[in-house]
Design a protein that fits this description.
alpha+beta, 5 domains, five-stranded mixed sheet, four-stranded mixed sheet
Length: 557
C-alpha cells in the first residue's frame, strides 16, 4: 500500500476544482492510497481503518473473504473512510479515465461525511489517530492479559449496537450541550410527551390553543396560555425549574450503564476491562451514521459521479467503457436492493420534482393523474433542495418522504413474492404489489434498526441488572439471547434479566364428546397453532439461562 503518484494526484486535484464549482463542499486535505485486491481483502473486515484495534474475528473474516475471492474474483474500485484528512483507497490497475469517475464518486462521499448532520459528532476529532491510540492500548493489554482481552471485546460487541447514538448526536454541537429550552419548548417537547400520557389529539389541541392565544392576546400570549396549565398540572412549574437548573436526565445506554455501575468492573484488577469496553463503544458510535445513511450515501455519490463525469472532457473515447462500468454499479435489479441504484434514482427524482415545483402544496393536492403528469411550475434547477436533503436526512427519512407512487411507477418497481412451484419443485418469484406504500415499507424493513433496549433502574434490585426491550413489532432473535446475556452477566458480575415480547402459543381447549362424535373421520390439514404476544423474562444467573412468561400484572404498562 502506497500513496498515489503525482500524475494521479493532479487528476484528483482537478476533480476537486470541478466538484467545488458544482457546489460540493469538503476540506482541501485528502489522502489517496494505491492498494491491491489482496490489500482490500485484509482491510475490509476492519472497516478500512488500517490501524483499528486487532480482533480475532477480523482474522476469520479475512480468511472467509480470501476464500470467496478465489471462487468469485472481483475488482473493488475504491473505498473511502471518514477521517481527518479523509482517506481513500484505489485499486492499482485502474486506468486514468476510471480514476476520474471514481474520484468524483469519492469526493461526493466526503462531501456527505463533512456536511450531513448525522455525522457531526465525528467532525471534531481524527478517528484515524484515535484508532491508532486504541490499537496500542489493546495490544499492551493483550500482552498482559492474554485472551481475556478478546473475551471482553466479544462481550462488549454483543451490545455495541445499543449505544446511544442520537443522544451523542444531540450533544455534538461544537462540543457543547444544547442550551436548555424555554418554558414553552419544555411544555411541548418534554412535559406533554414524557410527563403525561401522550395523546396526539390533546397535543394538537394544545398547539391550536396556543395559536389562538397568540391571535387574541399577542402581548401576553404565554401568560394566558399557561394559566390553566398551572391549575391542571401544579407540578409543572417545579419540574420546569428543576430541568432549567440541572438539565435533562441522563439516560445511559446498556453498555455505558454497565461501564459506570458495574461493581465487578470497578475492582482494581478489572478496571482495564472498562478501557476495552470504552474503545468498543466509541468505535460503534463513530460508525453508527454510516450504516444509517447507506442508501443516501451511495445514491449521492453515484448521482454526482454520473453528473460530473458526463460533462468532463476526459470521458471522450471511453463512453462505452464508462457505460459498462456505470451500469454494473447503478443497475436497478428486479429483485433485491442496490443502494447505489435506488439512491441515485431517488436523487434524480427529487431534483426533477423540485425543479418543476412539484414539492409545492398546489401539486400535492392534485388528484388527476394527467394533471400531475403535465404539471410544470418551474423553480430553478432543484439543486438547492438536493443539498438540503444531503445535509438533513438519513436513510429512513430519505425513503419515507420521497418514495411515492410516481417514483414507483416511473421505474416499474414492485414488491416481490416467493412461492413454491410444486410441478417443477422450485421457488419462483412473482409481482406481489406495485403499491408505493408496500414498496416503501419493504425498503424501510431492510434498513438498520437496532432494538430499543434500556436499563430499568427501578427494577434493578439486589444487584441484578434489569433490561427492558421496548417492543416495536419485531421480536429479538432468540438464538442470540443466551450468548449476549452471558457476556453482559460477565461484565456486570451479577445476574441479568431481560424483558421482551414473544409469540406464545395459546392453550387450545379439548373438544367435548358431542364435537368428537360429529367430527369427520377424514384426516385434517395441519393447522397453525394460535398464538399471542406476551411479555417474557429471561434471566442469566451463574451462566444458566431461564425463561418465564409474565402475567399481565407483572409486565409494565
Amino acid at each position: 500500500m502506497e500513496l498515489i503518484d503525482q500524475h494521479t494526484k493532479a487528476i484528483m486535484e482537478g476533480c476537486k476544482e470541478r466538484a467545488r464549482d458544482a457546489g460540493l463542499r469538503f476540506e482541501d486535505e485528502t489522502l489517496e492510497y494505491i492498494v491491491t485486491n489482496r490489500d482490500l481483502l485484509e482491510l475490509s473486515p476492519k472497516l478500512m481503518i488500517p490501524n483499528l484495534y486487532d480482533y480475532w474475528v477480523h482474522d476469520v473474516d479475512v480468511l472467509k473473504e480470501k476464500g470467496k475471492y478465489e471462487l468469485y474474483p472481483g475488482n473493488p474500485y475504491e473505498t473511502v473512510i471518514n477521517t481527518r484528512p479523509a482517506i481513500s483507497y484505489y485499486n492499482d490497475n485502474n486506468p486514468d479515465w476510471l480514476n476520474v469517475m471514481i474520484f468524483y464518486h469519492v469526493l461526493a462521499h466526503i462531501d456527505l461525511f463533512q456536511n450531513n448532520i448525522f455525522f457531526r459528532h465525528t467532525w471534531d476529532y481524527d478517528f484515524n489517530g484515535q484508532a491508532l491510540s486504541d490499537k496500542r492500548v489493546i495490544a499492551r493489554l493483550r500482552s498482559e492479559k492474554g485472551r481475556w482481552v478478546d473475551y471482553v471485546i466479544e462481550f462488549s460487541r454483543g451490545i455495541d449496537n445499543l449505544v446511544g447514538f442520537h443522544r451523542a448526536l444531540a450533544h455534538a454541537d461544537d462540543g457543547e450541550r444544547f442550551a436548555p429550552p424555554g418554558k414553552l419548548d419544555y411544555y411541548f417537547d418534554i412535559f406533554l410527551q414524557q410527563r403525561t400520557p401522550f395523546k396526539i389529539n390533546h397535543y394538537l389541541a394544545e398547539v391550536e390553543r396556543y395559536n389562538q392565544c397568540l391571535r387574541d392576546n399577542p402581548s401576553n400570549a404565554d401568560d394566558v396560555f399557561f394559566a390553566p396549565i398551572d391549575v391542571e398540572h401544579p407540578e409543572f412549574q417545579a419540574l420546569f425549574q428543576k430541568y432549567a437548573e440541572n438539565g435533562p436526565e441522563r439516560h445511559l445506554d446498556p453498555l455505558e450503564y454497565v461501564m459506570e455501575h458495574s461493581h465487578f468492573l470497578k475492582r482494581e484488577e478489572n478496571r482495564w476491562m472498562r478501557t476495552v469496553a470504552q474503545v468498543v463503544r466509541q468505535t460503534s458510535l463513530f460508525f453508527q451514521p454510516q450504516i444509517r445513511t447507506k442508501i443516501l450515501h451511495e445514491g449521492w455519490a453515484s448521482y454526482w459521479h454520473e453528473k460530473l463525469f458526463m460533462r468532463d472532457d476526459r470521458i471522450r473515447g471511453h463512453e462505452v467503457e464508462y457505460a459498462r462500468v456505470n451500469a454494473g454499479v447503478t443497475a436497478l435489479p428486479r429483485v433485491g436492493l442496490n443502494p447505489y441504484a435506488l439512491g441515485m434514482r431517488l436523487f434524480q427524482h427529487i431534483e426533477e420534482m423540485a425543479a418543476k415545483g412539484k414539492r409545492s402544496f398546489a401539486y400535492q393536492r392534485l388528484q388527476d393523474a394527467g394533471e400531475r403528469a403535465s404539471f410544470d411550475g418551474r423553480r430553478g434547477t432543484g439543486l438547492d433542495f438536493l443539498f438540503d436533503v444531503r445535509t438533513h436526512y438519513c436513510d429512513f427519512m430519505f425513503i419515507h418522504q420521497f418514495i411515492d407512487q410516481e417514483f414507483v411507477d416511473r421505474h416499474r418497481l414492485f414488491v416481490a413474492g416467493k412461492r413454491l412451484n410444486r410441478q417443477r419443485m422450485s421457488w419462483e418469484y412473482y409481482v406481489a404489489s406495485r403499491d408505493a406504500d408496500r414498496y416503501r415499507e419493504m425498503i424501510i424493513d431492510s434498513l438498520f434498526h437496532p432494538p430499543h433496549v434500556t436499563v430499568d433502574t427501578g427494577r434493578s434490585e439486589n444487584g441484578r441488572l434489569y433490561l427492558v426491550h421496548h417492543f416495536e413489532g419485531k421480536p429479538l432473535v432468540r438464538d442470540y439471547i443466551a450468548n449476549t446475556l452471558l457476556g453482559i452477566e460477565y461484565l456486570w458480575g451479577r445476574p441479568v434479566c431481560l424483558e421482551t415480547s414473544e409469540l406464545v402459543p395459546i392453550d387450545s381447549k379439548e373438544d367435548g364428546p358431542a364435537a368428537a362424535a360429529g367430527r369427520s373421520q377424514l384426516p385434517e390439514a395441519p393447522r397453525t397453532p394460535a398464538a399471542e404476544w406476551r411479555r417474557v423474562r429471561y434471566t442469566m444467573e451463574a451462566r444458566s439461562l431461564s425463561r418465564e412468561i409474565l402475567d399481565a400484572e407483572d409486565a409494565p404498562s
